[in-house]
């Protein structure tokens, strides 16, 4: 019987070479990625969040005319921390991006495409068969605070 890749992932002891295989993405695996990402954000597990992010990480303001800014790993944590604290614009009660992430246990399927997904003000992209955080929209107060 021939071994399959899934056999090696499910039973890594059966093939030492494949112990570090990453489970590859399929068209409908974003909810699984989101569950892991959401848990990392809620617990502010920066190592896990960084591992789930494509660098340079990009941000821009809410207008299409705002410039896109690229951030390296060293700058990412402060940018992401500012992002999750910002008002998400969904209601006048001052809910934050973190509140929205906590509330979104499963992303709306209409915002998940084959290679792209958006949850609130975060954008994700499938890169080499893995989902990655690639972009965030920052409000102007957040941009101003990061420039100080």
Automatic annotation (TrEMBL):
<protein>
    <recommendedName>
        <fullName>SnoaL-like domain-containing protein</fullName>
    </recommendedName>
</protein>
């Amino acid at each position: 019987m021939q071994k399959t890749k899934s056999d090696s992932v499910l039973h890594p002891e059966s093939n030492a070479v494949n112990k570090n295989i990453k489970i590859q993405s399929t068209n409908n695996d974003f909810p699984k990625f989101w569950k892991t990402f959401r848990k990392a954000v809620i617990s502010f597990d920066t190592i896990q969040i960084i591992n789930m992010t494509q660098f340079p990480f990009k941000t821009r303001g809410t207008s299409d005319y705002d410039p896109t800014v690229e951030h390296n790993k060293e700058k990412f944590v402060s940018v992401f921390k500012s992002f999750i604290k910002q008002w998400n614009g969904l209601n006048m009660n001052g809910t934050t991006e973190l509140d929205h992430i906590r509330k979104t246990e499963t992303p709306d399927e209409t915002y998940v495409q084959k290679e792209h997904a958006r949850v609130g003000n975060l954008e994700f992209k499938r890169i080499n068969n893995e989902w990655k955080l690639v972009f965030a929209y920052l409000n102007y107060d957040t941009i101003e605070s990061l420039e100080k």
